[in-house]
Amino acid sequence: MKSYQEMSKEELLQEKESLKAAYKEYQKMDLSLNMARGKPAVEQLDMVMDILDVLDSKSEMVAENGIDVRNYGEMDGIPEAKKLMADMMGTKAENVLVFGNASLTIMYDTVSRSMTHGVCGSTPWCHLDKIKFLCPVPGYDRHFAITEHFGIEMINIPMTEDGPDMDMVEQYVNNDPSVKGIWCVPKYSNPQGYVYSDETVKRFAALKPAAEDFRIFWDNSYVVHHLYEDRQAELLDIISECEKAGNPDIVYEFASTSKVTFAGAGIAAMASSKKNLDFIRKSMTIQTIGYDKVNQYRHIKYFKDLDGIKAKMKQHADILRPKFEMVDEILTKELEGLGIGTWTKPLGGYFITFETLEGCATSVVKKAKEAGVVLTGAGAPFPYGTDPRDFVIRIAPSYPTLEELRQAAEVFVLCVKLASVEKLLEA
Amino acid sequence: MKSYQEMSKEELLQEKESLKAAYKEYQKMDLSLNMARGKPAVEQLDMVMDILDVLDSKSEMVAENGIDVRNYGEMDGIPEAKKLMADMMGTKAENVLVFGNASLTIMYDTVSRSMTHGVCGSTPWCHLDKIKFLCPVPGYDRHFAITEHFGIEMINIPMTEDGPDMDMVEQYVNNDPSVKGIWCVPKYSNPQGYVYSDETVKRFAALKPAAEDFRIFWDNSYVVHHLYEDRQAELLDIISECEKAGNPDIVYEFASTSKVTFAGAGIAAMASSKKNLDFIRKSMTIQTIGYDKVNQYRHIKYFKDLDGIKAKMKQHADILRPKFEMVDEILTKELEGLGIGTWTKPLGGYFITFETLEGCATSVVKKAKEAGVVLTGAGAPFPYGTDPRDFVIRIAPSYPTLEELRQAAEVFVLCVKLASVEKLLEA
């Protein structure tokens, strides 16, 4: 097969005409498909409906420490919920606080608290002239939205298959005291599906931050979200690595059951050192009388333990895997050898990252939209929504049905081809 | 009956001896009673256990606007939850956002947001030299804890049976641009059980704040928490009063179902003007992907509508009323005519306020504790935990059983007598 780069101008023009004709056919179909959001499919939600059966009016509502889960109190989570979330993250219960239904809110509140109250006694960030966060790119748009919302300057750090460019991370963190944080999705990263290598984790743990109030924001959202039973990524436990490195306080880890049970009604947790948690508890005492312990208890009754979570994740994988594989299959079939795109083949998580020729991502997303397929906005996985090379597209295969996904992927490859031809013709 | 003030020193000394003997008897009983927290009793929680039956694995999980309540999205609440909470507060659904399980968290977040982002475009409070809040006293300790946590100066405003001293409120709000807020529990106030009169509400609505970012924090926690079916307090709707007065943006109203269903697992809401809500939604979009809509939906299925809430509140009242009446009965029987204390007789809410002779509250609380009865700390209902006259005690009759409460109240009156005799003997 001839790559697009090898084609003559005439061949490209011909290709363009035939692509345009195919594109018009799709436009006529009046499609309404969505590959934009990392939402669980209806089938996945249906699969966990039995969580609604574990508590009823006859249930005992008492946690293992004797407290009534229906009443006020137990601000930082019932003990068995701490244990379960600790097991999920691969850390100890004493390192964990359990919050409400979303880890994003914990992250927001953590940044917000640092703005108004500093970090373990440091100057509140809102009283500092300049605050910076490192942002491995491409990354999770909602992380970047938080730092942007608080006026924090964001610095792009390139991602590799092993994690962020650690030379650059060390350079910034160890020398610039205005660098206060870094956003990480260490396992099955959003949107590439990369897993931080052991070396990367160890280098994170061994950072020597110039700022005493620097923290790693370790968003372990996909910690149990494997696609393949026999090829599960292993990630070192950042909490114990930081302890070993004599840096126990430099990391906050976050996780939730948002894509294990119901996306909107799970439980979320944070893990960190005693010093950090004690500081956070001081604000928590003021911010809340306690999060929803009934829902924590419901999750405990449903899963019993980590094995319960793993069993459920296997069922999720059985629904998700065919979708990831179908997208990969169509991309391979339609684009391999054309020299106009590469994509990741994640073993877990919720996303595939597609890289177009430079300067084509916006055009692909626009064309797809005009043919009825909504993709995550080009630029979204970058701070300020700006992809400097305009070449990254996040594909979210989870929500559509297989049949919808097939159509969406076919429209997508067509749009990639069309945008690429147009780009090459410009040159 | 002779009041303590009328007694001679000799009589007082004699009284003291006999009180001490009785006190020692109680101490021997090794009591462990608690009248400190405004927690629903176990019986009240048992009464709403059937909320756990309304959803099960067979339930339809679709809100009236067609969205799946199990998945992400619908950040500011499902429409029927907005409607229900609006009906509860006596306002319109369009004025309401529904959040997580606790209104305290909404209040904290509202102050926190004002610190970092200002109010509808005003300068963030963290960049201002001085921020003040007015605090009607006695009031709710957790309100004061929020403002103290953010370094906001608190100014005591005396409460009357009709609400805060409005002359003083107007004086401050209309003249001092550093006054940015006031904490209010307008109905069955914490801890006195007073209800703001129509005139008070209208004067609030007609404030002409010197600060454009002044807001009334209207914590309507006890909006449906009547004790008597036939003597229910009416409170004017602050939202529409503010609209009528041409001041639509000066109030945030808060409410929750924390003491309607489960104290720790209810739903909470805020009501305000479109302008305020639009500004808040901007932060919400960053802070959360959405609160727990399954629990919102559960509450809708359980109550159906405001009548469902009212029916449930009647059952709560049937449990609470005898407790309030028993406390009042014992206080009356033991203290009437002695001139050493007065107390409120609320028609709703969760508290009774007892006023001792000046300078006796701390002593009463200490004595009660040493006899095994925990009361809310003296000073707690005041900013910075300081009751300038040391005379206010908050009594929370809800949690103990009737039998426990009888004993606790008997210990309490004994401690009041003893502390008063000691005080009078000092003079």
UniProtKB/TrEMBL annotation, chains A, B:
SUPFAM superfamilies: PLP-dependent transferases. One of its GO terms (molecular function) is transaminase activity. InterPro entries: AspAT_Ic, PyrdxlP-dep_Trfase, PyrdxlP-dep_Trfase_major, PyrdxlP-dep_Trfase_small. Keywords: Aminotransferase, Transferase. Transmembrane segments: none annotated. Pfam families: Asp_aminotransf (PF12897). It comes from the Bacteria. This is Aminotransferase class I/II-fold pyridoxal phosphate-dependent enzyme. It comes from Maccoyibacter intestinihominis.
